Amino acid sequence: MTQVVGGDALAQMLAAEGVEVVFGIVDGTYMGFFASFEKHGIRLITPRHETSAAHMAGAYARLTGKLGVCMASNGPGVANILPGVAVENGEGNRVLLVTSCRRTPIAYPDRGGTYQYFDQTGVTRAMTKWSGAVPSFERLPELFRRAARISWSGRPGVVHLDVPETIMNGVFEAEGLDLRPPEAYRRTAAIEPSASQVTQAAELLRNAERPHIHAGSGVLHARASSALEEVATALGAPVTTSWAGRGALADNHEQLLPIWAMEPIKKARSEADVMLVLGSRLGETDWWGKPPYWGKPDEQEMIQVDIDDEILGLNKATELAVLADAGAFLSALASELRQSPLSDQRLQTNRARTASLGPKSALNSTKRCKTRGAQCTARRYRPRADAFSATTQSTCSTAAMRQCGRVSSPRSTSPTRCFRPSSWACWVQGYLRLSAGKSPSLTQESCASSAMARWAFTSKSSKPHSAMTFPSSTSCSATSSGAW
After folding, report:
1. Sign of CA pseudo-dihedral 191, 195, 198, 201
2. Nearest to 209 by CA among 358, 359, 352, 355
C-alpha cells in the first residue's frame, strides 16, 4: 500500500494549481508540508514577519495573475499574519492562506487549556472570502478544492485553509485520495463577454463626444495592460485608474491622468458623457462615482465590466453591465474597434481634448540644471487650490528647485510629508545631505517602490542654499532618513 504525508498531498495540489512559490516562516507544525515543496517544484521564500508573507503573496498574485500562497503556524504565527490578511483581502488580491492548528483531539473545540490555541477560522472568517478547517485527511482534497474554487470566483480576495498538525505531518494511506486537476473542479477559462455587448459598447464609445476610460485592479489581475493601451489609443480617450489600479497603464503614457492630477481627473470624469469602467468597484477612493467628481446620472452613461456580478451597478447606475474578464472584454473591444474605427474627425477631437487634460497640462515645464556636480530635475506645478497640490508645490518641487539653485533661500517649516508616484522617484537625481538639524533635507525613501515614492522635507535653518553641501555622486536608492 502506498502511503503519503498529509502535507505532501497538500503541496501536490498546490503544484497542480500552478503554484511555484509559497511565502512563510517554517515551523514544526507543518514540517510535512514545506518539506515536500522541492519535489513538487515549489520554492519557499521566508520573510522576517508573517504579515510580510501575506503582502508578498498578494504582490505575487497581482504581478503574475496566479494564486499567491502564504503560510503561518498555529497561534502566534496566525495572529501575526492577520493584518496582512485584512489588507490583501481589502485590496482584492488572490491569496490562499494555509495555516496549521493544534491536533484534532484538542482543537475545534478547545479542550480547555490547549497551548497557543484560538479559533483561527472564526477570527479570519470576517476578513476573508472563505475560511475553513480540515477535520480529517480524507476531506483535505475536498476543502482545498472549495478554497481554490472560491478564490477564482468573483472578485479576488483571501481564502483560508486551516489544517491540523496531525494531518500536516501524519502519514496516511494514499489509496482513494481524490486528487483532481483544476479544470475538474473550477472554471479555468476567462469569462468571455457576449458579442452583442461588445458591439453595443463599441457603438456607445464611437458615438461619445467625451469618452473616458477608468481602469481598476481587475485590469492588472487580467494582465490586460496591452489591450487597455490599444483600446485607449483607438478611442483617443483619457484614462484614469483607481488607487488599486495603478500601473494598469504606464505612468508616462500621454493619455493617462495619474492619480496626483486631481483637478484634471475631476474635470475629465465629470465632463465625460460615456464612461468605460473596467474591473473597479467605484469605491470610496473613486468617490463612489458620484457628482461633482463624476458626471450626473442623467448626463453620463456608464459601461461597467467586472468578473463579479455583485459589483455591476453597485455604486453607479450602468447603461451596459458586462459580466466578463477585463482582459477578455478589452481584447474583444480592441478587435471591434479595429474593424470599425472612429472617424478621423472624432478621433482627432478626442485626442485634442485628452491632450488638454493630460499630464502636460498639470506640469508647466521640465528644467534641468547642474549644481555642485549633482544633477537634478525640477518640475514646476501649475498652482491649484487643493491642499494636496499646495503641499506638492510648496514642499517637494520647491525643495527640488532649491537644489537646482532656483530658489534663493530655504523655507523654514516643520517637517512635512509628501507622496509622489513611484515612477517619478528619480525626478531629483541627487538629494540634500544635511548636517543634523542645521539645514533642509529631501530624502527619497524608495526609488523602486511598487506603490508610492515617499519624500520628506524638513527645514530648521535659514542658511542660504549656497552654504548647503551636496553628495558628490547621485543615488536613487536612498532608503532611510532621520527626517522620515
Report:
1. negative
2. 352
pLDDT bracket for residue 262 (50, 70, 90): confident
| Higher local confidence (pLDDT), 46 or 452 | 46
Lowest model confidence (mean pLDDT) among 60-74, 256-270, 352-366, 403-417: 403-417
pLDDT at residue number 74: 86
**Positive or negative, the Cα torsion across 369, 374, 379, 380?**
negative
Percent of the chain with pLDDT over 90: 54
Cβ count near 483 (within 10 Å): 18
Q: Which of 98-112, 185-199, 301-315, 470-484 has the lowest mean pLDDT?
A: 470-484
Q: Is the pLDDT of residue 63 over 70?
A: yes
Mean pLDDT value of segment 333-339: 95
Contacts (Cβ under 8 Å, ≥6 apart) of 83: 51, 54
- Tell me the three-class secondary structure of the chain, residue by residue: CCEEEHHHHHHHHHHHCCCCEEEECCCHHHHHHHCCCHHHCCEEECCCCHHHHHHHHHHHHHHHCCCEEEEECCCHHHHHHHHHHHHHHHHCCCEEEEEEECCHHHCCCCCCCCCCCCCHHHHHHCCCCEEEECCCHHHHHHHHHHHHHHHCCCCCCEEEEEEEHHHHCCEEECCCCCCCCHHHCCCCCCCCCCHHHHHHHHHHHHHCCCEEEEECHHHHHCCCHHHHHHHHHHHCCCEEECHHHCCCCCCCCCCECCCCCHHHHHHHHHHCCEEEEECCCCCHHHHHHCCCCCCCCCCCEEEEEECCCCCCCCCCCCCEEEECCHHHHHHHHHHHHHHCCCCHHHHHHHHHHHHHHCHHHHEEEEEEEEECCEEEEEEEECCCCCHHHHHHHHHHHHHHHHHCCCCCCCCCCCCEEEEEEHHHCCCCCCCCCCCCCCCCEEEECCCCCCCEEEEEEECCCCCCHHHCCCCCCCCCCCCCCCCC
What CA–CA distance (Å, rounded) separates 281 from 378? 36
Residue 167 has pLDDT above 70, yes or no: yes
The whole-number pLDDT of residue 342 equals 92
Tell me how crowded residue 64 is: count the other CB atoms within 10 A of its CB: 15
User: Given pLDDT bands bounded at 50, 70 and 90, which one contains residue 358?
Assistant: low
Contacts of 399 (CB under 8 A, 6+ apart): 428, 432, 440, 442, 457
C-alpha cell at 251: 505612468
